[in-house]
Amino acid sequence: MELHIVIQGRKDLANQLYQQLRDSIESGRLAAGVQLPPSRLLAAQLGLSRKTISDTYSRLTYENFLVGKIGSGTFVNTLSAQPQRSSIRSDLASQKVVRKWQDISLPLRHPTLEGTLRCDFIGGATAKTQFPHDDWRRCTQYALRQMSQARGFYSQPEGVAPLRHAIAGHIAFARGVKCSAEDVVVCNGAQQALDLIARVLIEPGCTVAMEDPGYTPARLLFAAQGANVVSVPVDEEGIIVDGIPENAHVIYVTPSHQMPLGMPMSVARREALLEKASRIGAIIIEDDYDSEFRYEGRPTDSLQSMDRFGVVAYVGTFSKTLLPELRLGYAVLPSAILEAVIKAKQLTDWHTSTLPQWALAKFISEGLLNKHIRRCHGIYAGRRERILARLAGDLSPWLEAIPCTAGFHMAVMFKVPINLRLLVELARKVEIGLYPLTGFYHSAPTRDGLMLGFGAIETLDIDPALDRLRDVLEQIAWQSCTAR
């Protein structure tokens, strides 16, 4: 490996080398277990004698910074190499702003591989076993060939043209969205789309109205950009339009599958929402995160398909249909904000990685996305039916589902008082991941319930997992009775 060592002059050479190597180890620039160059090679590179190098290595070995392995070489000692973090300054000119970001509590973080449970009802995630790896690999090879023909310049912030055309065609067919390819901006997931739209619409003090309960990361994002986020309650028809402030600049909704409760917004409520947004000059952000999976009733198109005022910014993602790790999403924008969002995109990250863009364009154009969605739809429908059957059966004394017809999570409410924290803790002990609804509420009265995601849990794991959930609920009920 190459070491960044600078030797100045011809005095105190060994101490210069020693101090720089020790500083590199203590700071973590030389990580634990890294092999150092042989003394002969380093001596030639630095113009020092081999004895100077050997003596320095010996001194650091004596102090346990290095360890010699016979026949292998000299390595940074794993026991002593622990990077020292620089002290935190409290006199930064921007300390107030830094503290604001530090104090943000990030909900809905997905577990690491080490923290994954055997049966996880986490929402917003899919199982990799369903991902069409062979088809995607072939599309990625195509993407590499396309990139090899490029001249090496940065790409366009709005996305590569074939993908924008493919997205426009797909969402027109699947969700009734009215757009052309020129209206589409490709983003790093739906979250970046929300961020970009917020950047061009929000300044400190602006009012943003959103559902309560609602998608908490969106609330935190708007608040972090200085917005006054106003909670608007929802009922069985969706957001209560009369509760939206007259001075709202932005209205954030999830009309096709309300996050997290799951009910769709009624047609009458959608019309009222569009009328009000047009009257007060607000932009509606329609987050259509997982509505391509629908199980009952007549299909409902997007809110954007009803927009005759040019006030809806439609946000979609491939994290739910494919994989979250791909970080591919998009926004279909009204003309009033399209150019501004494209410029904001260029300023923040220039453009989304072109390799997955070309691959996804090929994937969609060959009909592979629709094929994959149809296959997953059957899988999710079976899982949903199995959970609903159990909720109507042996779990019915405790839980009932809120009716929903789309997506791959459902909200279930408790019929009886329950210690949610205890339930989650006991469930984790038997390898079950449960997620309360409480984190989605802000100002509205909290209702005790769970979000049961069925995208990431395997079908064969559902019944054993719900058996354990039932056993835990019975245990809590028994403990509650004996404590009285």
Give an overview in words.
- The chain is α/β, with parallel strands linked by helices and 484 residues long.
- It folds into three domains: 64 residues, Arc Repressor Mutant, subunit A, CATH 1.10.10.10; 121 residues, Aspartate Aminotransferase, domain 1; 239 residues, 3-Layer(aba) Sandwich (Aspartate Aminotransferase, domain 2).
- A hairpin with a 7-residue loop joins strand 12 and strand 13.
Compact summary:
The chain is 41% helix and 14% strand. The N and C termini lie far apart (68 Å). The chain has 3 domains: 13-76, Orthogonal Bundle (Arc Repressor Mutant, subunit A); 119-126 and 371-483, Aspartate Aminotransferase, domain 1 (Alpha-Beta Complex), CATH 3.90.1150.10; 130-368, Type I PLP-dependent aspartate aminotransferase-like (Major domain) (Aspartate Aminotransferase, domain 2, 3-Layer(aba) Sandwich).
Question: Topology, please?
Answer:
Elements: H1 13-27, H2 39-46, H3 50-62, E1 66-69, E2 73-76, H4 95-102, E3 119-120, H5 133-148, H6 161-175, E4 184-187, H7 189-201, E5 207-212, H8 216-224, E6 228-235, E7 238-239, E8 248-253, H9 267-280, E9 283-287, E10 312-317, E11 329-332, H10 335-349, H11 354-365, H12 368-392, E12 399-401, E13 409-414, H13 420-429, E14 432-433, E15 449-453, H14 459-483
Parallel strand pairs: 3-14, 5-6, 5-8, 8-9, 9-10
Antiparallel strand pairs: 1-2, 4-11, 6-7, 10-11, 12-13, 13-15
Helix pairs in contact: 1-3, 2-3, 5-11, 6-11, 7-8, 7-10, 12-14, 13-14
